[in-house]
Specification:
about 220 residues, alpha/beta, eight-stranded parallel beta sheet, 9 helices, about 40% helix
Length: about 220
């Protein structure tokens, strides 16, 4: 599906919900995509991209950033503590803060580096064992702890269970964010981004619908 088609669908949903046009940012998820596909999207003028792994991002984005100005890079996947410094130097936004040990590491490094990416806290809205994220009932206290560390927490992120209605999870995330006075909502992917926009998403993460199916080899 062409990039412009996705942008048009986002705008149509914003209009339907009486949201300001452009209030939802489209993150083109370029993980495991060949460089030529990524370059094609860059050449169309898109500048907001998401990667799941620090190592993969480090192998391709420094060169792209030299070639294209104003690229904004988002880390969407789990962040290992030993990759924190590299992530902070490479990414503009981190969407997957999910534990206090990582929060403390980010805070310590932000003092050392004199900067810190904007941060989303990942909430495990479906309480799935195999999925990262803080439990919904623990989110308020975790958000408070992260704010107390001085971290720039701008919002919350979730990945709903594959077999459940995503809108219920998007609504839950929005409720937790509102009660903690957080504006950012990172939610919605290729299959459900319009429903996420309807629930107030500020960032949607769309990969295969833009680039084509991934080949994991």
């Amino acid at each position: 599906m062409p990039l412009q088609d996705i942008k048009d669908r986002i705008e149509a949903e914003e209009a339907r919900m009486s949201r300001p046009l452009g209030s939802t940012r489209l993150i083109a998820v370029s993980k495991v995509q060949p460089n030529e596909r990524v370059q094609a999207v860059l050449e169309q003028g898109h500048r907001i991209f998401g990667e799941n792994k620090v190592q993969e991002a480090a192998s391709k984005w420094p060169a792209f950033k030299e070639q294209f100005e104003n690229v904004e890079l988002h880390l969407l996947g789990p962040l290992q503590t030993n990759k924190t410094k590299q992530a902070m130097e490479l990414f503009d936004v981190i969407h997957s803060l999910d534990r206090l040990k990582l929060a403390k590491k980010l805070a310590a490094l932000s003092a050392e580096l004199s900067h810190c990416p904007d941060i989303f806290i990942q909430v495990n809205t479906g309480k799935e064992d195999q999925k990262a994220g803080v439990m919904p009932e623990e989110a308020d206290s975790f958000i408070s702890e992260c704010k107390a560390l001085g971290l720039p927490i701008i919002g919350l992120m979730c990945i709903p269970p594959a077999d459940e209605e995503p809108s219920l999870h998007f609504a839950l995330l929005a409720k937790i964010a509102k009660s903690n006075e957080l504006q950012g909502l990172s939610m919605g992917m290729s299959s459900d981004f319009e429903r996420a926009v309807a629930q107030g998403a500020t960032h949607v993460r769309v990969g295969s619908a833009i680039f084509g199916e991934r080949d994991y080899g």
